[in-house]
Amino acid sequence: MYKIIKISSLVMMLLFITTGLTQAQTVSGVVVSADDNDALPGITVLLQGTNKGTSTNLDGEYELELSTNEFQNGILIFSAIGFVRQEIAVDGQSSINVELVTDTQLLDDVVVVGYGAIVREEMTGNVASISSRQIEEVPVNSFESAIQGQASGVFIQKSNGKLGQGINIRVRGTSSVSASSQPLYVIDGIPTTSESQSQIADTNPLSDLDMDNIESIEILKDAAAAAIYGSRGANGVILVTTKRGQAGDTRINVSLDRGVSAPTNRVEFMNADEYITFFQDAAGRGDLYSYERDGNPYGYSSAAEAYDEGVAYAEDVYFNFLAQGTDWESRQVDSNWQDEAYQDGSNTDFGVQVSGGTDKTQFFVSGSFTDQDGIVRANTFNRLNGRLNLDHTASEKFKVGMNLALSRTENIRVSNDNAFATPLQAVAQPPISPIYTPEFDTNGDLTGYSDVPNENTLYYNFLRHVRGVDNNQTVFRNLGNLYASYSIMPNLEFRSELGLDLLFQNEDYYADRNTDVGENTNGYGDSQWVNVINYTTNNYLTWNAQFGADHSLTTVGGMSFQSSDRLLTFVSGTNFPTDSFTKLASAAEITNGSTSQTTFTFLSYFARSNYVFKGRYLFSGSARVDGSSRFGENSRYGFFPSLSAGWILTREDFLQDIDLLSFLKFRASYGLTGNANVGNFPSRSLYEGTGYAGTSGLIPSQTPNPDLKWERTTQYNFGLDFALFDDRISGEVDYYIKNTDDLLLNVNVPATTGYTSQLRNVGELENKGFEFVLNSLNLVGDFQWRTSFNIAFNQNNITNLDGQVIEGGFLNRAIEGEAIGVMFGKEYAGVDPDNGDALYYVHNSDGTKDRSAGTTNIYSSANDVVIGNPNPDFIGGINNQFNYKNFDLGVLLQFVSGNDIYNGGGRYQSANGDFFDNQTRDQLNSWKNPGDITDIPEARLFYGNGSNPSSRYISDGSYLRLKNVVLGYSLPQDMLTKLNLRQVRLYATGVNLLTFTNYNGWDPEVNTDLYDLSNNLNIGNDFYSAPQARTISFGVNIGF
Amino acid sequence: MKNLLKYFSLALVGIVTFQGCDSLLDTEPKQSIDSEQVLTNPENVKSVLIGAYDAIGDSDLFGGWYLMTSDFLAANNEFSFTGTFFPPRQIWLKQQEYDNTQLTDTWNDSYNAINITNSVISALDLLEGSEKDRVEGEAKFIRGVVYFELVKLFAHTYETGQTNSQPGVPLVLTPTTTIDEESNVSRATVEQVYTQIIGDLTDAKDLLDDINPIRSYYANSMVASAVLSRVYLQQGEYEAARDEASRVIESGNYGLEGTYAEAFNNTENSGEDVFSMQNSSQDGVNSMFTFYSADSRGDVDIEQAHLDEYEALDDRLNLFYSDPADGAIRSGKWNDGTNGNVNIIRLAEMYLTRAEGNFRLGEDVGDTPLNDINEIRDRVNLPLLLEIELDLDAILNERKLELMFEGNLLHDIKRTQRSVGARAYDDDKLVLPIPRRELDSNPNICQNPSYQGTAC
Predict the structure, then answer these.
(1) What pLDDT is stored for residue B10 in this prediction?
(2) In this structure, are strands A237-242 and A248-263 parallel, antiparallel, or unpaired?
(3) What would the DSSP string read from start to end of B227-248?
(4) CA distance B221 to B203
(5) Which helix (H) or strand (E) holds A784?
(6) Minimal Cα–Cα distance from A485 to chain B, Å?
(7) A299 interfaces chain B, CB cutoff of 8 Å
(8) Residue A298 or residue B128, greater confidence
(9) Touching check for B2 and chain A: CB below 8 Å?
(10) Interface contact B3, partner A, CB < 8 A
């Protein structure tokens, strides 16, 4: 069977004209949507086996002249993107009206790729797509949520449950050590600023996007797809395409969604009674240990005295202080500090979209706002968006258009995970500490609490921050682009695009006199403005050619230039007249002020050809030459080619008769991509300014490396696409190998040089894996059930680091022969049943594991070995979509498996009473008497028995999560007609409703914001990180 | 087809001319300049010298951790580090490992400062006359004093009257321009390091004026003498130590403040500050404040055992205070915010050094040991000692109490071969390990006894 699907009606028209007309039988009709009977413009109508065809006009009408033979025996094919194509025998009818059904399968889609689009069937690369339908079915208010679990091979990890926080996205594993492994984001053809601009923990600039404006998201994964983005393709490319207007009636969509959220999990900590008993014993045992085994430094005369003195110390020095006058002995105060860290989360999202136009001009206008209260105390996020997308056909040859999106995002942030002021660190406060200041009557009896947070706590009371700190990040974002295209010849088009991505971010901070930041300085305020001015121009030619019936060639060639300027202004001040004054104008002392600027540019030339022979042999080649200001004089330009081929077997004669197989394609690709995600001047030898006592000075800041060049990733991809049973089951299988060499590596150098690291091209790493995608239409008819399943296995291995040891995170390392970021340290061996000492495996001094070397109770005698791997073995998701009459139900399960998480807070939270931090309840099971078999060492206050970093604090981070459930109801057509509405859908959604995991911390989807996300080694760490939110919301979509 | 080609070439020409050349890729850093432009004129060389002061004022060096590291190692039952911050806590417990981030930072930042001074020294030919002398003297002073702190912390102590062939620290005396095999330096002996230190400090003493003509708080000849007095004292060269200390006292440029409290928490040098790191809201961080003060972390609890060391009337006791947050006793020496100066050498120390030197030698150069000690005691309202009460213990005890929490105790214990609790002065754990990062990146560096890594 020979399917021809054309990208645009323009090309069809063209072919139609060139074949000429010889006969005069006419067939005509109207094409409407089976969903709502609306006329469908732009539907391709083609006579099978010929180039003869037309497309429908604004009213859905078409007319086609046929020869007598064709009029009797011909078959008309009605097709368009997003609809199931229909084949109807003409059979002598002069009028054929058609209802087209919305397509639910992906195979016929057109896929956006760099600088163009391609029919999915004819694609030779690997691209994961998220369509607007998927986004509409599952309402999400963040970009990453739309992809997570839905795109195969794309690993998404949020830092924590704070709003607007940075995310990790890895496409087919981590392909670099020192350079960022985040993908390139391209919105409507324009590379976009996606790096955090915050002075505190990373934020996610993609949270400025309004999801309702997105038509599709494509993730270019293999080299055939990504090499057109050359030096920035190695981490994958995420293309975002926004919605555009269609000619026809003006359509208005209004949507409203309101929800509530709560944390996915709470960790159990001791209550006051448990705390007191536990720490009395821990203090007693601590002093007992000092008497019996540590040389009796306090001069006790007996074991009993030592124990009692220890208990007395805890009571007199700590409990009495912590209780602040309340009676801890009677457990008068039993504070649940964890509860204080949370608040009731909620969200309201409202959006209006209007689209329509004439055949000359089409528009899409939208406006929306979202207002979210996070689950973490005092954390809020709100955003206003506006967008106008306009297309105008000035003449047959000339088209112009623009996209303009404006947004304002306001994020009231909380302190980083490692600050005492971050809400989750409140779990460290002892439960005998009152949360608010206790008040007493004249007899000294507790009468209640004032509304002032208790200032006399073990650690800084974060509620003082909640009250006294404004930490307000406001982002103004302007994403715009203009394009013009001109048809030089009917099949040759020149397109020019100019894109501007403006990001203005202000971080306004004020800490009043009652906070630790402002208490000594009569308030502290700062303000940081960052302006990122990022512009791009793309200029390219597209040539579509059809040579005879067998050869079709699409070629794109052109250039691109991008320049990005980042300007920063920072001012801080102290000594404010009162706390009513929070702006620096009122600061008596300006303590710091700074401006800085940095720039990078890319100049690129690219070309790509797709050649289709006989509709079934597919060949594609692309090449890009990239020049970047970031690299050394000696290697400023890089060349990134790719080659790929595909073979559609089902279009071969020998497979024509196998009905069960409706589509089968093999594809293979090879290509080079690069990574340039490094600082702006890494190759140069630099001095920077400094100052001492008000006099300016100079200090060396970087050693030179003029040979510094691109990191190169060579990727092979072998895949197969298939469809069975008339497309009821379809899927993709891919195997890839990604080899990265010339790694951009921050190589440790001897500090005796005055430097600690130098960026060099050293080392190699490899990612390889399988990806499977399976879509099936399990049930059709009234009750429809569709399933999409994807799973991706990736194996990362650092093959060569030239002997370097690179460290990150708490225990993360890059080690030759291991996956990136493995945790390296002491292996915990449990507890010595005889004396309660924590034990560690000795292993070998060269880092190889050998448990037969025995255990030791001396931490430093144990050798470091690999004790964990933060990279998942496989990830994926299963989405089930059920439709029955007017009801729809979507259930998305998402899973991550095989990754380890190191809880950096474990040594404080679960340290068997090493210090007075409240402990997780499992510590009650600590070793007490000889012979006790337990994993928790004897509680010895201040003696650090087992609290040093080790595998004790590593646990399996695998999880299966009920990510999203949506139940929707659409009003029936007759009711809509009465109400004069086009569409009404009511729905309820649940996000993160259930999580199945063995992880013993808050939430397995975690990567603490204490460490910079741009460092690839900072993975798999938890540190008082807030859990994700579980959200239940209700919404309505109304279409006019 | 002809038309097609024509359009193609037209468009291509357009594209190419639109961009022209790769000058678009020429961007310049705005906050930095290329090294080649730096050491080319006198002004820049002097600016790099300022950079060297900034480098040693770093919180990991004289901004605090040179002082705290040695004090925490010297801690027995007299004070406790009660913070949960692990790197200093390990040091206080004498359980520091070779991957302790605090000592790693101190090591790294010290060599950063050394590289800066080496850059200055390498470019002295750009300067002339007295200016050249001044810049050379200050740079060598900084290099010498940094090496002195390094060798005291990272190597076994100097043993008087012996060949000190135990491993010291690597001696790097030229600026780094490229990093290659030759960058893998090995450790010089303690003797070699001391020779270098004395050479640098003696040059500084000879080259510099008695008062720095540019800024009073930059190094001068007296500051060099004061540090030399410490170096000689550490070596047990009492005569030389005494002479250098006496030279500082006799200069008349310094005088004890009226009260003990006035010697601390200053934002400008007090009359008795021979050398101190300058901090302000604009630059520098006083990390002593960060860890000692109740207004900050308040991590160092002073135990009664320490307070018991003082005589009842001692005015120095009045500088201790009770932390309003938790009732712990804190030292009041470091209570002036992160912008307060960090005292490095006070005149009081010179009196104590001269007294000790004279006492050991049985001499009265400058003044009698009794008078010098009583100079210190008188200021803090203590009864003057009688000749009969004066012995070495009295002098060393006075030295300990006067200079407590100022970074001297460990080095005084080592040179007098006393002990820290049960640990002898030459205990392996009273020496820091060479950081793991350094061992990993330099195969020629060896480790101190008792620590992980290839032993020397």
Answers:
(1) 53
(2) unpaired
(3) HHHHHHHHHT-HHHHHHHHHHH
(4) 9
(5) strand A783-800
(6) 13
(7) no
(8) B128
(9) no
(10) yes
Q: Summarize the confidence of residues A503-512 as an average pLDDT.
A: 94
Nearest Cα of chain B lies from the Cα of A600 at a distance, in angstroms, of 7
**Token pair recorded at residue A920:** 């997780």
Is-contact A158 A167, C-beta < 8 A?
yes
Higher pLDDT, A41 or B63: B63
The pLDDT tens digits of the residues spanning A26-44 come to 888 988 887 777 788 778 8
Q: Are A1 and A77 in contact (CB under 8 A)?
A: no
- B198-213: per-residue pLDDT in tens? 999 999 999 999 999 9
Token pair for A726: 């008339």
Alpha helix stretches (DSSP H) within B178-286: 190-207, 221-235, 238-250
Three-class DSSP category at B75: coil
3-state secondary structure A600-661: EEEEEEEEEEEEEECCCEEEEEEEEEEEECCCCHHHCEEEEEEEEEEEEHHHCHHHCCCCCE
Reported pTM: 0.82
Which chain B residue shows the shortest CA-CA distance from A542?
Answer: B8
Which residues pair with residue A536 across a beta bridge? A499, A562
Pairwise CA distance, residues A402 & B275, whole Å: 65
A850 Cβ partners below 8 Å, 6+ apart?
A842, A843, A844
Which position has the token pair 């006009």? A57
In contact, A728 and A777? CB cutoff 8 Å? yes
Interface test with A, best of B25, B37, B151 (most A CBs within 10 A): B25
Task: List C-alpha distances in Å: B281 to A49, A525, B226, B278.
Answer: 80, 14, 28, 10
What is the per-residue pLDDT across A745-798, written as a single tens digit (0 to 9) for each? 888 899 999 999 888 888 999 999 999 999 999 988 889 999 999 999 999 999
Per the CB < 8 A criterion, the answer to whether A920 and A864 are in contact is no
Q: Is the ipTM of this complex over 0.85?
A: yes
pLDDT the model gives residue A42: 76
With b for 16 or more beta-carbon neighbours within 10 A and e for fewer, the A956-989 pattern comes to bbbbbbbbbbbbbbbbeeeebeeeeebbbbebeb
Give the alpha-carbon dihedral of B224, B228, B229, B230, to 10 degrees: 110
Q: What is the pLDDT of residue A145?
A: 83
pLDDT value of residue A108: 52
Q: Which amino acid is at A32?
A: V
Question: Which residues, 6 or more positions from A1010, have their beta carbon under 8 angstroms from its beta carbon?
Answer: A201, A416, A417, A418, A904, A1021, A1023
Phi, psi (rounded to 5 degrees) for B440: -65, -30
